[in-house]
Design goal:
16% of the residues lie in helices and 31% in strands. It is an alpha/beta fold. It has 3 domains: 92 residues, Elongation Factor Tu (Ef-tu), domain 3 (Beta Barrel), CATH 2.40.30; 109 residues, 3-Layer(aba) Sandwich (Rossmann fold); 80 residues, Ubiquitin-like (UB roll) (Roll), CATH 3.10.20.30. The radius of gyration is 20 Å and the shape is globular. The relative contact order is 0.12. Bound molecules: FE2/S2 (inorganic) cluster (FES). This is Oxidoreductase. One of its GO terms (molecular function) is metal ion binding.
Length: 316
């Protein structure tokens, strides 16, 4: 896995349309036959010429490093990145893309794996399903969509894994629908759950999997999970060298730390990519990100969106 700070200039080798207002983009290097390796669940940061950086899961085959494949859904009411890709990006264009990173890895386990995807959340889940299928591991992929005609990558998925491993839950076919609570009420011994999808889907799965044991639930969100309307409070940060940084209510911890002269990388500034992640040593953070796994929340912090009560000592 390459460093996230390596940025490669990749060429758009192909664009095709998928159901659900999705464009699939193939990216290649104009000289190098092979790109840095990646694992299922990995994503890249794509630097758009409109000054935006967006994270997209790699949904192609990790055994074919001649290209990266991403799938981009047009987000109406989004912040403009997906609209630019849909309306402006054409084959032959050059895009700066970081080497892959993985905040959503498949864990080593011999137990059964339950994969849940909602709509465009199929992108990392597809890569996982392909890997599990190849490895002959026991898994079920439950794909939730409004209809077949709005389910991106479904055709490719059906050609890649067995129909025995795939369950479709389509809103327009009553007989295929299944209640999430019912689905997640059985937890086979040693099972791991992975899920990805839009915010409503994420919230529903989080609720339905509340009783799953710690360390068995894994997810990747496109937006922060916490929609907290509480007005942010000011707080203080103490750095390792003893410097005290105040974070006003209208600024992020990231911007306050940077203003204090600490160089901290960031990308999405939305709590979903993990680029700005750092450690904390003391204090009570208020986690508002969608990237840290629960077992990291006792010592890691995402300063672009998370805050704290009182004083937070960072490992910076
Ligand atoms: S910059 Fe992406 S999580 Fe902070």
């Amino acid at each position: 896995m390459g460093s996230p700070r390596i940025i490669m200039k990749l060429i758009v080798a192909g664009v095709h349309v998928e159901p659900g207002d999705v464009r699939v983009i193939e990216l290649k290097h104009h000289r190098r036959p092979l790109l840095p390796a990646f694992e299922p669940g990995s994503h890249v940061d794509v630097h758009l010429p409109i000054g935006k950086v967006r994270q997209y899961s790699l949904c192609g085959d990790p055994e074919d490093l001649s290209r990266y494949t991403i799938a981009v859904k047009r987000e109406n009411g989004g912040r403009g990145g997906s609209a630019w890709i849909h309306d402006q990006l054409t084959p032959g264009a050059e895009l700066p893309v970081t080497a892959p990173r993985n905040h959503f890895p498949l864990k080593e386990s011999d137990g059964p794996v339950l994969l849940l995807a909602g709509g465009i959340g199929i992108t990392p889940i597809f890569a996982m399903a392909r890997a599990l299928w190849r490895q002959g591991k026991p898994f079920e992929l439950h794909y939730f969509a409004r209809s077949r005609s709005l389910a991106p990558l479904l055709g490719a998925l059906e050609k890649t894994i067995s129909s025995e491993n795939l369950r479709l839950h389509l809103d327009d076919q009553v007989e295929t629908r299944q209640d999430l609570e019912e689905l997640l009420s059985t937890r086979p011994s040693g099972a791991q759950l992975y899920y990805c999808g839009p915010p409503g889907f994420m919230a529903a799965v989080a609720l339905a999997s509340e009783d799953w044991p710690d360390g068995t639930v894994n997810f990747e969100a496109f937006q922060p999970l916490v929609q907290d309307d509480t007005p942010p409070e000011p707080f203080m940060i103490v750095l390792r060298n003893g410097a005290v940084v105040s974070v006003p209510a209208d600024k992020s911890a990231l911007s306050a730390i940077r203003a204090a002269g600490v160089l901290l990388m960031a990308s999405c500034e939305n709590g979903v990519c993990g680029t700005c992640e750092c450690g904390y040593l003391e204090g009570q953070p208020i986690h508002r990100d969608a990237v840290l796994p629960s077992n990291a929340r006792s010592h890691r912090f995402i300063p672009c969106v998370s805050r704290a009560t009182g004083v937070l000592k960072l490992d910076l």
